[in-house]
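User: Predict the structure for this protein chain, please.
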Amino acid sequence: MRDQLKHAAATAAIELVEDGMLVGLGTGSTADHALELLGERVADGLVMTGVSTSERTAVRARELEIPLRAFESGMSIDLAVDGADEVSPQLDLIKGLGGALLREKQVESCAEQLVIIVDDSKLVERLGRGPLPVEVAIDDADATLAQLRALGCEVELRRDADTPFVTDNGNCIAHLSFTGGISDPAALDAQLQALSGVIDTGLFLGMTDVVFCSGPDGVQRLERKV
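Assistant: Here is the predicted structure, written as structure tokens:
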């Protein structure tokens, strides 16, 4: 059922892709649906180029014969399509449980339009219902984790089997859990960014333009209020 909902949201988002666009390609189970649909459109004649947010996405895009361009800082991307772990009423997000938050943020911050696709289970009243991923430098990671725990949250290092998970950028991911959620996401993000060893956070604030949310009653389009 959830896969069907994800597919419906992805279908609505991919309709926004037009010939000649440079498109940010997200990472994760929901973004996978968008990637497959985009591959079908390319096979049918759509002319576009993708910018991947992970090695996993790049591999699948090549299998689907979606042309790719390497990410460059400051590049102008027409549209980025990705999933999210949590979406607030303000369309702020928690992302990164797929392990690609840094590249996702780098690519999507360059997009003229960021389109998020989710099923209705991802909508929350307050961010922080689940863990917040934070990418941390692998060198002296224990000291960084100690700084994170000093904020009063529970901290777990993401693992791949018995070893720490390593991102495409050679970093680790810490999962932060806050009792009662995150009361002030912007303040928390600034606090985390100031810590030595923190590379970036899974808080995507003020970035989303459109959310396609799929539920039992169909796909709802949510837009950021200006």
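The chain has a mean pLDDT of 96.
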